[in-house]
């Protein structure tokens, strides 16, 4: 047995609809958020992901994307992927392809998403 102990981290996702973002908390500390616009009927445009600088490179972005996509699936929603991070996350898995809105799926890859974001000045 090693001298290192694994400490369980409590993680929870909140839909802060007033701010238009999903928020990921680890041990009651806000560590990341994903801005969205909710469109009708039950479509979410996933616009921008941010992770607190002190929590970068710790899997927060991926955990956030996965949990948000699971919540949208549970709501029987669809997504339009605009955020470059989300587009990249989706390109690495087929687990959420069914969530892409067929008429408005968003960007096909991270480079396209980043170019569009740069062009828009964001």
Order of helices and strands: EEEEHEHH
Structural class: alpha+beta
Q: Provide the low-confidence segments as ranges.
A: none
- CATH H-tier superfamily: Gcn5-related N-acetyltransferase (GNAT)
Helix share, percent: 25-40%
Question: Domains counted in the coordinates: how many?
Answer: 1
- Return Rg in Å: 15 Å
CATH topology: Aminopeptidase
Tell me about the biggest sheet? 5 strands, mixed
- The counted number of beta strands is 5
CATH class: Alpha Beta
- Amount of beta strand: 25-35%
Inertia-based shape: globular
User: How are the strands of the biggest sheet laid out side by side?
Assistant: 1-2-3-4-5
The number of helical elements comes to 3
Explain what this protein looks like in three dimensions:
By secondary structure, this protein is α+β, with helices and mostly antiparallel strands. It is 28% helix and 30% strand. It has three helices and five strands. It has helices spanning 60-74, 84-91, 110-120, and strands at 11-16, 21-26, 29-39, 43-51, 78-81. The protein has a five-stranded mixed beta sheet. A hairpin with a 2-residue loop joins strand 2 and strand 3. The mean pLDDT is 92.
In short:
This protein has 122 residues and is of the alpha+beta class.
Outline the fold blueprint.
Blueprint: E1 11-16, E2 21-26, E3 29-39, E4 43-51, H1 60-74, E5 78-81, H2 84-91, H3 110-120
Parallel strand pairs: 4-5
Antiparallel strand pairs: 1-2, 2-3, 3-4
Q: What key attributes describe this structure?
A:
Aminopeptidase; 122 residues; 5-stranded mixed β-sheet; alpha+beta; 3 helices; single chain
């Amino acid at each position: 047995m090693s001298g290192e102990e694994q400490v369980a981290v409590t993680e929870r996702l909140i839909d802060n609809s007033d701010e238009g973002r999903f928020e990921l908390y680890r041990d009651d500390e806000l560590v990341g958020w994903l801005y969205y616009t909710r469109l009708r009927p039950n479509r979410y445009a996933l616009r921008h992901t941010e992770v607190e600088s002190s929590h970068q490179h710790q899997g927060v972005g991926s955990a956030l994307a996965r949990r948000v996509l699971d919540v949208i699936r549970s709501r029987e929603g669809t997504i339009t992927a605009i955020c470059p991070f989300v587009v990249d996350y989706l390109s690495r898995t087929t687990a959420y392809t069914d969530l892409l809105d067929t008429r408005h799926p968003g960007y096909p890859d991270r480079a396209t998403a980043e170019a569009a974001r740069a062009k828009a000045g964001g």
